[in-house]
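Reviewers of the previous submission asked for a worked example of the structure-prediction workflow described in the proposal, so we include one complete record here. The input consisted solely of the amino acid sequence. No template or homolog information was supplied to the procedure at any stage.
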Amino acid sequence: MLEFADAQYTDRKTLFVEVILPLAIAKNYTYRVPFELNNIIEVGKRVVVQFGKSKLYTAIVTAITEHPPEKYEAKYLLEILDDRPVVTDRQLQFWKWLGEYYMCYDGEVMNAALPSALKLASETKIALNKEFEYDRAALHDKEYLIVEALDIQPELTISDISKLLSQKTVMPILKELFEKNIINISEEVSDRYKPRKRTFLTLNPAYQGQDNLKELFGILEKRAPKQADAVLAYIKLARHQKAISKSELIEESGAGAASINSLIEKEVFIAEEKNVSRLYFEEEDLDANFELSDQQQAALVSIKQQFEQKDVVLLHGVTSSGKTQIYIRLIEQMIAQGKQVLYLLPEIALTTHIIERLRQYFGSSIGVYHSRFNDNERVEVWQKVLNNEYKVVLGARSSVFLPFVDLGLIIVDEEHETSYKQFDPAPRYNARDAAIFLANMHQGKVLLGSATPSFESYFNARTHKYGLAELTERYGGVHLPVIEVVSIAEETKKKTIQSHFTSVLMTDIQQALTNKEQVILFQNRRGYAPVLLCRICAYTPKCINCDVSLTYHKHSGKLHCHYCGYKEDTPSICPACGSTHLEYRGFGTEKVEDELTLLLPDARITRMDLDTTRSRNSLQNILNDLEEKKIDILVGTQMVAKGLDFAGVTVIGIINADSLLKYPDYRANERSYQLLAQVSGRAGRRGKQGKVVIQTYDPAHRVIKQVIENDYSDLYFTEMEERRGFHYPPFYRIINLDVKHKNSDILYNQATYLSNELRKHFGEERVVGPQVPLVSRIRNYYIQSIMLKFEKDGVSINKVKTTIRDIITQFQTTKLSKGSIVQPDVDPY
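From that input alone, the workflow returned the following structure tokens.
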């Protein structure tokens, strides 16, 4: 026996694991694996590790090796949390690519990718040792207090005990209790994900025979009639469904929980607790018998043919041309092949609307994933995707992080939308571009869909890097809406404008209301008034943390900062000069809604913006009310431009187009066209031709004419000439570096130094700045931006990024960098 044990000991392997910690650190850390865990350690599992003096973290294993780290002694990992990997090898490769491409750390990618319930919290907990008997009379006063408190509350933290005893140092007392074996002390990781459980009932086989059941009824009807009602209700439910939950039986029978519990105690019912889904989709009859139009069928055939040669195809179809129906046919094809599909949407808002249209085709095989799901729901979707239970996932940009097993197709709907870009925190990724890489890893295909494609995608299609399919007609032969441009200046001069509504728009709104039709009004600002101004000294209240004016919100009666969330009371007297002549300038959605209520008191008016859709179901409620024609006029921000499809909407009003057209950005014309065309596309989508009224101070603006004529090509070719000349995408790549510091003078020196170092390596023409952005201070940090432009041909972007990283690292080793933050943003727009 001794010889065998010695042989076993000499065969032991010492394993080490490289892990990703959920921290912004440049390198992954290595830990030693306790021998007893050697057989269960796997790449992709979560492990508990200590990092620093006392902090515990959940980390993801990325590699297993027998080689210890060279520069430091590896600590032991403390625990393995999973029976099987929660992150796949493909996901780890995907995370690695995201970190390298978007110039961020693996830990930052992990933080974005994993649902928060899979990232566990560390805290020291105290609990009674229930397996040990002791004499409480032998405890001194403070020990007795702790034990009594643990009788009432099973677990206490060290800070709880400090408060209980009114003293800072409690560890010596806890140490004594621990040595007496009275308590357990552990720095433990608490898993926040708890599966949702439900109690299901089955009738005891002893009562399933007719004679026995009759005898049971005879007894219960005399002694416990409510229990008899419960058994009868169970039999009725059992005719139509296999699984009957306790809550369903209580509701169906009206017998109450006490009666059901008595039947369980009597073993008439056998109770079994099962994990159930929190998600609200149930099996439905599938009905996919819609007919594609000739043009849709031709586009579908074209897409399939091009997928044989190309990995990405752009579907360029006018608004309401029936792109979703083509998506459905492609999804059906993928499901038939046993593959998974990811259907990306730019807004959380759209998932709830479109799921209703897709669930009738795919039933419970479709999952939904976005940030408004709670922690438990997100983990549940994660696990169902990992188990290949969901064949279709519909979600916002974070859905690219899900653990797909065999991804055959990714659909990126409204691919031009800026919502696909993550701005803060890192990784500052674009889900559309990330989806293309992800699909390539799975040998899958990508379909990009839009009525107004991004210039990058359209450029790639025209240069044959992507395939291109087009839909030039609306589904069902419905005409594109009539667009009328109205001059705000002219109507103001003639005094025919009422508040912010021209006579043309008011007439069309009133006509729509008379015809029992619906109206959508678009204003690209939320709040009541963007600026509060003193008429005497021109004072404007500004945020104390950011370099922006505060916006007045009537519903709260306060001034709000839309960057950091700061709020303050609205002054009645100017703080600068003491004047009472304060007035509101400009207007947002809240003011449009308010003034429209005065002009049209009988109309049912609702507002849809960030302020009215914060709670989880508020947006869905608004969309349901619009669908059911409980809303006559919907006032909204950009949300109303994205994918809404309602038969009753015939009039669209764009209150002020100039706020889009005058924005100082090289993409302003592209974005303005996209937004105006998308908002216009909400009108007259089914059966009846709609009308769009665009109010502007500049009716002759080129982009407005291109929108009226639906001339995307003219916009594209005009803008591309300018972009080529000024070295902008798609001909050049852009990397932005934002340098931040709390002192503006120090920041100027830091940004100047960094830009000079960049010029030494890349030349004068490729480095622009440093320059102050439109908003020069956010959350008390001043900002300076450096823009780098690199040709797409003849330049290795990987080498460029390595050089930039080296320059930033070298800068951060100097004394000058103290207190600074440098944020790279690849493909920033």
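The two ends are 70 Å apart (CA to CA). We consider this example representative of the routine output the project will generate in years two and three.
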